[in-house]
Design goal:
mainly beta, 2 domains, 4-stranded antiparallel β-sheet, about 0% helix, elongated
Length: about 130
């Protein structure tokens, strides 16, 4: 990322006859390298966590940043992989699966999933506990 000065910035020193700052002079432009140090996470989930639903055949996940490597088997419902997934970028991604048995359902990301952000040094979505539990 380059930081520069705006045209007509009006910056001057405090000399008796003020001198204009030259924003194009050597040393007047800086470069910074920013690094993404935060892994992606599920920003929204439908249905939301900890609610009671009449049936559960799909879960829709939107991530907090664009991701790649999302596959149906990345989301486990009661330790069984989803059967289908659709979506791109940050999502939404809709995971479809067979109706689980009545009762509490456990949702988790598969330990070997390949979901990661698109940073220069990609960060992987943490495995384990899924978007809803």
């Amino acid at each position: 990322m380059n930081i520069t000065w705006g045209t007509g910035h009006g910056i001057r020193d405090r000399a008796t006859v003020p001198n204009a700052f030259d924003g194009t002079a050597p040393g007047a432009i800086w470069s910074y390298r920013t690094t993404d140090t935060v892994p992606p996470s599920a920003a929204t989930v439908v249905p939301p966590p900890f609610v009671m639903v009449r049936s559960l055949k799909q879960i829709t996940v939107t991530f907090d940043e664009p991701v790649i490597g999302v596959e149906a088997g990345d989301l486990l419902v009661n330790d069984l992989p989803a059967q289908e997934v659709s979506g791109a970028g940050a999502g939404p991604y809709t995971f479809a699966f067979s109706q689980p048995a009545t009762g509490q359902v456990q949702v988790a990301w598969a330990p070997g999933h390949g979901i990661q952000d698109v940073a220069a040094a990609p960060m992987r979505l943490p495995a384990g506990r899924g978007p809803t539990c």
